[in-house]
C-alpha cells in the first residue's frame, strides 16, 4: 500500500490505558466513524498472542473503513497480519533495517526530533515522519519537546509528509498552522474522551483548517 498524504490528516494512535471497560476494537471503530484517517496500533505490554489477535481485529476494521493500518515498533506482528506498515522510533529498530524486512511496498513511518534525524530517516526509506512532542504530553513520559520552529524546519527539509504528535488537543491544534505538516497524530485527545467519535470528528475538522492543500 502506498501512502497518500491525505491519509495522515487525523492519525490516531491507540492506547488501552484510557479504555475503561471498553474493548480497543470498539474504541477504534468509534474513532474511525468520527473520521480518523490512519490507525497505529501501539502496544508495549501485551503478550504476543493477544497482540496478534488484536492486530487482526483492528486491521479488519481499518479495511472496512478504507484506512491504513500500521503497527508500532513490532515488525513481526506487522508482517504476521499483513499490516499496511510499521512505525518506529529513534530507539526502536533502525529504519533501513525495517525497510529491508517489510519490503518496498509497505508504509514506513519514523519518529524524529531534529532535521538531521529527519533527513536520515528519509534517506533510509521512511514514507512519512512523526515529529514531536510539539506540546507537553502525558502519553509518553520520556518525550522531549520539539519547538514549532524545528517542526517547520523539518517540513521544509524533507520531501516526505510530516505529522505532528505530542500533547495535541482541540484547544491547541490551530497553533500548528503554517508549520507545513500534513496531519496530526493524537492519542488521548481521542481515546481519553468520553465521546470518542465526536472527539475524532472535531479534531478532523480542525486539522483540515491547518493542513496546506
Automatic annotation (TrEMBL):
Pathway: Cofactor biosynthesis; thiamine diphosphate biosynthesis; thiamine phosphate from 4-amino-2-methyl-5-diphosphomethylpyrimidine and 4-methyl-5-(2-phosphoethyl)-thiazole: step 1/1. Transmembrane segments: none annotated. It holds the Pfam family TMP-TENI. One of its GO terms (cellular component) is cytoplasm. 4-amino-2-methyl-5-(diphosphooxymethyl)pyrimidine binds at residues 40-44, 72, 111, 140. It is an enzyme of class 2 (transferase). Mg(2+) binds at residues 73, 92. 2-[(2R,5Z)-2-carboxy-4-methylthiazol-5(2H)-ylidene]ethyl phosphate binds at residues 137-139, 167, 187-188. GO terms for molecular function: magnesium ion binding; thiamine-phosphate diphosphorylase activity. Residues 10-190 form the Thiamine phosphate synthase/TenI domain. It comes from the Bacteria. GO terms for biological process: thiamine biosynthetic process; thiamine diphosphate biosynthetic process. Its EC number is 2.5.1.3. Binds 1 Mg(2+) ion per subunit. It catalyses: 2-(2-carboxy-4-methylthiazol-5-yl)ethyl phosphate + 4-amino-2-methyl-5-(diphosphooxymethyl)pyrimidine + 2 H(+) = thiamine phosphate + CO2 + diphosphate; 4-methyl-5-(2-phosphooxyethyl)-thiazole + 4-amino-2-methyl-5-(diphosphooxymethyl)pyrimidine + H(+) = thiamine phosphate + diphosphate; 2-[(2R,5Z)-2-carboxy-4-methylthiazol-5(2H)-ylidene]ethyl phosphate + 4-amino-2-methyl-5-(diphosphooxymethyl)pyrimidine + 2 H(+) = thiamine phosphate + CO2 + diphosphate. Condenses 4-methyl-5-(beta-hydroxyethyl)thiazole monophosphate (THZ-P) and 2-methyl-4-amino-5-hydroxymethyl pyrimidine pyrophosphate (HMP-PP) to form thiamine monophosphate (TMP). This is Thiamine-phosphate synthase.
Amino acid at each position: 500500500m502506498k501512502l497518500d498524504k491525505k491519509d495522515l490528516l487525523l492519525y490516531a494512535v491507540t492506547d488501552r490505558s484510557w479504555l475503561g471497560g471498553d474493548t480497543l476494537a470498539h474504541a477504534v471503530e468509534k474513532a474511525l466513524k468520527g473520521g480518523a484517517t490512519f490507525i497505529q496500533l501501539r502496544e508495549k505490554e501485551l503478550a504476543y498472542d493477544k497482540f496478534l489477535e488484536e492486530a487482526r481485529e483492528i486491521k479488519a476494521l481499518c479495511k472496512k473503513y478504507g484506512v491504513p493500518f500500521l503497527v508500532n515498533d513490532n515488525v513481526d506482528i506487522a508482517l504476521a497480519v499483513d499490516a499496511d506498515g510499521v512505525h518506529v522510533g529513534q530507539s526502536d529498530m533502525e529504519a533501513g533495517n525495517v525497510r529491508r524486512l517489510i519490503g518496498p511496498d509497505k508504509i514506513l513511518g519514523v519518529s524524529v526530533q531534529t532535521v538531521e534525524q529527519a533527513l536520515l530517516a528519509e534517506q533510509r526509506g521512511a514514507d512519512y515522519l512523526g515529529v514531536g512532542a510539539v506540546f507537553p504530553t502525558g502519553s509518553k513520559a520520556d518525550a522531549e519537546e520539539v519547538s514549532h520552529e524545528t517542526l517547520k524546519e523539518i517540513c521544509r527539509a524533507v520531501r516526505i509528509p510530516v505529522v505532528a504528535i505530542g500533547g495535541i488537543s482541540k484547544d491547541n491544534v490551530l497553533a500548528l498552522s503554517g508549520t507545513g505538516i500534513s496531519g496530526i497524530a493524537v492519542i488521548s485527545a481521542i481515546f481519553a474522551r468520553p465521546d470518542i467519535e465526536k472527539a475524532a470528528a472535531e479534531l478532523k475538522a480542525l486539522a483540515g483548517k491547518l493542513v496546506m492543500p
